[in-house]
Amino acid sequence: MGRMNGERFAVMAGLGFDARVIRTADGKMKRVLGRGAYVWAATTNMRIKPFVAKIDIDGNRWYDGEASCILFGNVGKAFAGLKVFDDAQADDGLLEVGVASADGILQWSRIFARSKFSHTSKSPFVHMTKGRSIDVKLRGKVRYELDGGERTREKRFRIEVEPAAVSICVPANGN
Q1: Architecture of the domain spanning 2-155
Q2: Structure pTM?
Q3: How far is CA 122 from CA 55, 80, 114, 144, in A?
Q4: Are the C-beta atoms of residues 107 and 125 closer than 8 Å to each other?
Q5: Mapping DSSP to helix (H, G, I), strand (E, B) and coil, where does residue 39 land?
Q6: Domains of the chain: which residue ranges?
Q7: What is the pLDDT of residues 117-134, one digit of tens each?
Q8: Residues with Cβ < 8 Å from 26, sequence gap 6 or more?
């Protein structure tokens, strides 16, 4: 599990573009378009203007620059089979961290193509790492989401791994 600003998430959390897509693909749109609502929402938000972010991973400055989306994840795949984090492992005790610095439709299209047909990390508009403790400071407030649930705007985020937060029980007889 991950914890962002005191709230838990199991799969992914994100800010910027990701949160705007979640907000745009509302309940009515999902009832009409199904999963296509997310595709439509993504295409309508590709013109999001980047924001300035400073990110520290495990106490060290890792990123300082423009970002249009910042994701944190326990798993690698997102909607439509897009592989966001190439080598994510839910049980490695680390959170995946990805920053997209895309600005505009062309750059976002290149990221999505790499995600679908190659490796996301090979995009010149993507930066990735892993860590246990992440601090994000933004110049202004940005909307965020946790496991697909939208939240309000914030300008500071504290993300941490929550070790041993999930217990899985398996019947002794294998049934």
Answers
A1: Sandwich (2.60)
A2: 0.86
A3: 20, 19, 7, 25
A4: yes
A5: helix
A6: 2-155
A7: 777 777 889 999 999 999
A8: 37
